[in-house]
Amino acid sequence: MVRGPRVDRAGDFAHHTAFRAVVVRHAGRGGAKAAGDGGLQGGPAVPGAGIPGDGVAHPVPGAGQPVAGADEVKAPRTEIARPATLAEALALLATEDARILAGGQSLGAALNLRLDAPALLVDINGIPGLDRITLEDRHLVFGPLVRHRAVLESPLVAREVPVLAQVMPHVAHPAIRNRGTTAGSIAYADPAGEMPAVAHLMAAELVLASASGERVVSARDFFLGIYDTLRAPEEMLVAIRWPRTGPNERFAFGEVTRRRGDFASVGFVARAVIEAGLVRGIALTAFASEPAPVLCPAAEGAIGQRLTPGLAADLAGAIAADLDPMPSLAGSAEQKRAQARALARRVLMDLAA
Ligand SMILES: Cc1cc2nc3c(=O)[nH]c(=O)nc-3n(C[C@H](O)[C@H](O)[C@H](O)COP(=O)(O)OP(=O)(O)OC[C@H]3O[C@@H](n4cnc5c(N)ncnc54)[C@H](O)[C@@H]3O)c2cc1C
């Protein structure tokens, strides 16, 4: 089982709450770590350096003494390996205190904030063929370097697993989507991540490989908690197998964020088969409010029925009541439950539309 960055108190989770807590803890120690530990050093403030003409003093890296505390938010010393094959990468994972470097969008922040300090980064970006999206009989298969942007722009994804194309615009911003990978997002298991939620909803098959073999885990079982998954440290997520969407299937998505592209405080993604106006099957996954994506069984009360506004409101009440939201900077548990009730109703009505 893999635990990602340290989060001391699950109850305090909000996105970046953990990051802030660590920064505050370091700052409280009042300063520099042992010399030579490899943290990128900020130099003293030099008037006029940095942004021309702003008249503000900016730190210049490497210029003289470190600014007090500046080294506390930079990455620890870490070796980087750039394997040319998957086998080499898996061998490195088996023998070292190593982390895979995929898009680096989450790992970079975790290292800079000293939430993680591995001995070795295994940069998989030089391994050919890991960015493929392939169509199989019953699945659309992503390699571990399929980037968010490629998902957003792929006609194959839009046709075969349209919920991915529907949700992806809500993942971060274009600069992050250019580098960030779906596999990295799922492996990282941020409770507020949209891709873990979609994988959970779709019961995507996650192929985990190590030097000693492969196993396949359902995304319904994979997520254990905040940054915590079933993946063993020596395992790499080498493929995500998305079930191809069938006829009459519909999807809906909603999340509460402060701004579009931010991490959500409450979110739902839903899948239903609706025939002749009646719900034949439904699944609803809640994310962000809980430590890991969870299925909302109360949504199954819609089966055999027409999704009217009244039914959606009743089901939304039951769905929200079943949740156990984490209080965070984004709101108290009760605020999040109220948001969940309103959002679940809207998502259910979107399914019916
Ligand atoms: C400002 C900002 C805003 C963001 N907003 C959102 C958002 O709204 N929604 C959202 O979902 N995400 C968001 N993200 C995260 C983004 O989607 C990341 O790209 C993603 O979480 C991690 O993907 P990555 O490829 O960058 O992984 P990396 O940062 O390279 O790796 C993340 C972790 O996963 C591990 N890992 C990576 N690939 C694998 C693999 N194949 N097998 C096993 N372990 C692996 C790494 O070792 C590391 O521990 C945001 C990021 C930033 C910086």
From TrEMBL:
Domain spans labelled FAD-binding PCMH-type: 73-247
Annotated SMART domains: CO_deh_flav_C
Record flagged with keyword Transit peptide: no
Residues of the signal peptide: none
Database matches in Pfam families: CO_deh_flav_C, FAD_binding_5
GO MF annotations in UniProt: FAD binding; oxidoreductase activity
Region (Disordered): 33-57
PANTHER family associated with the record: XANTHINE DEHYDROGENASE SUBUNIT C-RELATED
Protein name, as recorded: Molybdopterin dehydrogenase
Organism: Pararhodobacter aggregans
